[in-house]
């Protein structure tokens, strides 16, 4: 019987996983993330399959503790939190769960854009504190404005559909061009510099790669409109946080709506709160930057929850169990390495 350890398990996921694993696998449901700070119980180390969410940072040092590991079943589309080089060198298959949150993430990205443009959170706070200044709450409409979408995969395409419904002009940047987006939503594909210069708003929907890390840096922000708003529900590392903070402070751009941050685990992972000495110089600096960014009035930050709907979670769990069952039967689905 295969031994599986599920990490990052939320309370509302437990019944589903119990029903699909009971009597079929020897399994453990672990609420904590799997990362280099976690002291693994000895019986976990015998697992041949582990399943993790993006809050787990699975590097070589942690993977070395699983001598029998055959499969990492991701409960996410992205896989930049996994050391694929180590997995490839040690014959460990990595499978993701694609297309689970297309609507969920796209809708959340639009909600962030509306929040920043119409100052929803700011007005709520002011009203709650009975300190209302309607002049500081003047917003802007989306209709007729230009939205630049970076990454037009499943999520980006769904976001384009929503933007089209708001009567927005759409610029797109992707390695491949989809004719149906051009025909159905009037998407105009362009280059990065043109998108930066012409967009009133920019929304990121691209996976993180070695080539696009910090694609939004000091140079990029200087090319954007002073009135521009940046939305990120993809990966925090696409944006250089110091550069974003500087750009907003210098009024080079108008604001941002962020569901992801660089080193976001230092805020969300309880291991860091239990022992702050675990923060190295780099993560400590990043945590301070994230905190300072959060204090800016024209920035909305949420805790990586764009995917977090009942529908999306059900699709994640269905897919991850399908991936595991197929793998045990000798079929590899949705592999990324």
Measured distance between first and last alpha carbons: 25 Å
Strand content: 5-15%
Mean pLDDT: 93
* Superfamily (CATH H level) name of the largest domain: NAD(P)-binding Rossmann-like Domain
Please provide the ordered H/E string of secondary-structure elements. Answer: EHEEHEHEHHEHEHEHEHEHEHHHEH
CATH architecture descriptor text of the largest domain = 3-Layer(aba) Sandwich
Q: Label the structural class.
A: alpha/beta
Q: State the CATH topology of the largest domain.
A: Rossmann fold
Question: What does it look like?
Answer:
The protein is globular and about 65 Å long. The chain folds into two domains: 117 residues, Rossmann fold (3-Layer(aba) Sandwich), CATH 3.40.50; 200 residues, Rossmann fold. By secondary structure, it is of the alpha/beta class. The strands form two sheets. Strands 8-7-6-9-10-11-12 form a seven-stranded parallel beta sheet, sandwiched between helices. The protein has a five-stranded parallel beta sheet with strand order 2-1-3-4-5. Helices cover 38% and strands 14% of the residues. Helix 4 crosses helix 6 and helix 10 packs parallel to helix 13. It has 14 helices and twelve strands.
């Amino acid at each position: 019987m295969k031994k599986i350890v599920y990490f990052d398990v939320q309370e509302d996921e437990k019944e589903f996983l119990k029903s699909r694993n009971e009597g079929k696998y020897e399994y453990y449901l672990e609420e904590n993330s799997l990362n280099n700070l976690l002291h693994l119980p000895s019986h976990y180390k015998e697992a041949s399959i582990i399943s993790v969410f993006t809050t787990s940072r699975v590097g070589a040092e942690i993977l070395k503790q699983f001598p029998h590991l055959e499969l990492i079943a991701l409960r996410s589309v992205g896989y930049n939190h996994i050391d694929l080089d180590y997995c490839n060198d040690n014959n460990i298959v990595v499978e993701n769960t694609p297309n689970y949150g297309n609507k969920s993430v796209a809708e959340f990205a639009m909600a962030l854009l509306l929040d920043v443009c119409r100052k929803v959170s700011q007005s709520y706070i002011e009203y709650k504190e009975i300190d209302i200044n309607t002049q500081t709450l003047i917003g802007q409409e989306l209709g007729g404005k230009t939205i630049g979408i970076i990454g037009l995969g499943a999520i980006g395409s769904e976001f384009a559909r929503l933007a089209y419904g708001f009567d927005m002009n759409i610029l797109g940047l992707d390695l491949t061009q989809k004719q149906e987006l051009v025909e159905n939503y009037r998407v105009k594909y362009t280059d990065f510099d043109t998108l930066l210069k012409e967009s009133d708003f920019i929304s990121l929907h691209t996976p993180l790669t070695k080539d696009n890390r910090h694609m939004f840096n000091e140079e990029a922000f200087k090319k954007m409109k002073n009135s521009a708003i940046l939305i990120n529900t993809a990966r925090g590392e696409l944006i250089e946080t110091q550069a974003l903070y500087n750009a907003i402070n210098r009024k080079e751009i108008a604001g941002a709506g962020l569901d992801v941050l660089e080193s976001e685990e230092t805020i969300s992972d309880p291991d860091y709160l239990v022992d702050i000495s675990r923060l190295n110089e780099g993560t400590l600096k990043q945590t301070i930057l994230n905190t300072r960014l959060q204090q800016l009035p024209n920035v909305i930050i949420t805790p990586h929850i764009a995917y977090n709907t009942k529908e999306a979670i059900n699709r994640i769990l269905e897919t991850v169990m399908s991936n595991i069952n197929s793998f045990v039967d000798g079929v590899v689905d949705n592999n990324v390495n």
